[in-house]
Amino acid sequence: MIKLRSAMVLPLVAALAAACSKTPEPTATSAPEPPAAKPAAPAQAAPAGGQQAAAGELAWDAPASFESAPNPNSMRKATYKIKRAAGDTEDAELSISQAGGSVDANITRWVGQFSQKSDDSPKRTELKVKDIKVTVVEVKGTFAGSGMPGMPAQDPKSSYAMLGAIAEMPSGDPWFFKMTGPEKTVTAARADFDKLVNSLHVK
Q1: What is the model's pTM?
Q2: Taken in order 139, 179, 72, 88, is the CA torsion positive or negative?
Q3: Number of domains in the chain
Q4: pLDDT tens-digit series, residues 68-78
Q5: Residue 117 is part of which domain span?
Q6: Which residues, 6 or more positions from 108, have their beta carbon under 8 angstroms from its beta carbon?
Q7: CATH at residue 133
Q8: What band does 57 get if pLDDT is binned at 50, 70 and 90?
């Protein structure tokens, strides 16, 4: 009887020993911790001076007194109406466009649209607005119309004035801001015109 019992106990002890030697299954408390996350690489400073943004279109802030109006043709970027001053019979108009040609050639064309110019016409001033070169021109006299091909002829209008600004872009054609109308109305709108010109900036 003793030998039989020993033969039965030995295999049982061996089985228990083998079970204890195995690695336990991971549980919620015994699962191995994930490897520590690598520290993020430090952000690199931007190069000194940075990279210049690509040149975009010209933008401006229109004064509240300038009423937006439909563009009469595809060449116009914007059109504004300026209410007439007391004593004038017409409103003034500000046209904004972008086209080719040199500054001098376009100023010559503008001045040529007036006959019987006043003694102080034309006036020309150059300024910088946020690194944009702007040439401002003022003409007074009898306005004979645009004189552009395909445009209807206009009767000459006395006591008229024009305020024009040509903005030269770093690349691309210049922009033209041209206000024409009765002299009193254009003169009264001069301060708002100057505000618009001084608000010019590249988008």
Answers
A1: 0.69
A2: negative
A3: 1
A4: 999 999 889 99
A5: 58-202
A6: none
A7: 3.40.1000.10
A8: confident
